[in-house]
Amino acid sequence: MDVGQKNSQSDTSAKGIHVVAKPIGPACNLNCEYCFYLEKQALFSAGENYRMGDDVLAAYITKYITAQPTPVVEFVWQGGEPTLLGIDFFKRVIELQRPFLKQKSISNSLQTNGTLLTDEWCAFLKANGFMVGISLDGPKEIHDRYRRDRSGNGTFDRVLQGLRLLQKHKVAYNVLACVAGETALRPLDVYRYFRDEGIEFIQFAPVVERLADAAEKDSGLRLACPAVLDRQEENTRVTPWSVTPEDYGDFLIAVYEEWVRHDVGKLFVMNFEWALNAWIGNPSPVCIHAKQCGRSLVIEHSGDVYACDHCVYPQYKLGNIMADDLLAMVDKSLQSGFGTSKETALPRWCRECGVLAACQGGCPKHRFAKTCDNEPGLQYLCEGYKKFFLHIRKYLRAMTQLLENGLPASYVMQAIKAPLVVKLDGI
């Protein structure tokens, strides 16, 4: 899809970029049923060593810091499972970043399944200011439904041990909870478990994957590659573990109703923060609900750079960090079908929708449904998102009113108990 020449390198530089690093590639010690990344091994050479070499690491750190126009450079380390690299790898990361500390403010985040964390790991993460995202889907029976190891055993106990170590060492952390088909049916069990564990920051990620077609299966893939560039995806067969649109909307609503009555200001659900942010009129801090995408790249262990975490496929490769300019690769991403096309390719149903400001059509990976007018490009989760955003409008109005009057948003809990004080319907 042609997006023209609007996105120049100077435009890219002005707005900044974001890169997620996969220094261990798709290598992982677990075998979660819904994982979309583990099978990417089929796209690499047999017997490949999934480990970012020192030359690639040094080039990436140098080029990312020098190319980033913003005063803060955020390094995000994911996998696979990045702790498989060992602590020495991340000690090298800190060493390579150190010469640039006078030029930029540098932060590091590590996304982990938590099963390999130790006291030594947590002491290192704390000492070097890492933010840790730990993958935990809820209480044991819910978590272990999908998140198992290579022997088919549940991983909850090991993940919880890792969480306890993070808490013990006072490492800053948040929880990433995947909402798959069966998980979505137990929203309050999930939420209340997190609250009881003293977890303060949560992000819910819907699990939506399509089954591969015949050609993709021949290449060793079970999941379909997202058709981000043509928007004419005919394959709409989702996996058995994918969450349904209605169930995802109901999940978010149930959690929100619990949160808005008891936990505003004490427990932070990122999905709800994003909704309030959009209601106030601020740009989305996450690509999912941003008007445009294309500036959030992924670098693999090999140094290859791709347009998106969900698009690590040959057709979305932008170049390699050893040979190519990082900003030039961002421009290539923007001009090849990402960027403004996320906004301009929306079907009329979305453009005329009352919750467009909050949703923005969602992630292009999930735009494989069709509207009631048979127009392609509709977000698969549209029904759920719309139900959720419409449901919470009264609360968003109340919280916005409170903030505009210099009061904390948490006062909404009192407003719910005494609605005549602050009208929740906005009238």
**Which structural class is indicated by helix and strand composition?**
alpha/beta
Major sheet description: 10 strands, mixed
The global form is globular
Low-confidence stretches: 1-13
Mean pLDDT: 91
Radius of gyration: 21 Å
Task: Provide a descriptive summary of the structure in words.
The protein is an alpha/beta fold. The protein is built from 17 helices and twelve strands. It has helices at residues 9-15, 54-67, 87-97, 119-127, 140-146, 156-168, 187-196, 214-218, 245-262, 270-280, 326-335, 341-344, 348-351, 356-359, 382-391, 393-404, 412-417, and strands at 18-22, 72-77, 105-112, 131-135, 173-179, 201-206, 268-269, 296-300, 304-306, 317-320, 369-370, 376-378. It has a ten-stranded mixed β-sheet with strand order 7-6-5-4-3-2-1-8-9-10. The chain has a two-stranded antiparallel ribbon with strand order 11-12. The protein is globular. The model is unreliable at 1-13 (pLDDT under 50).
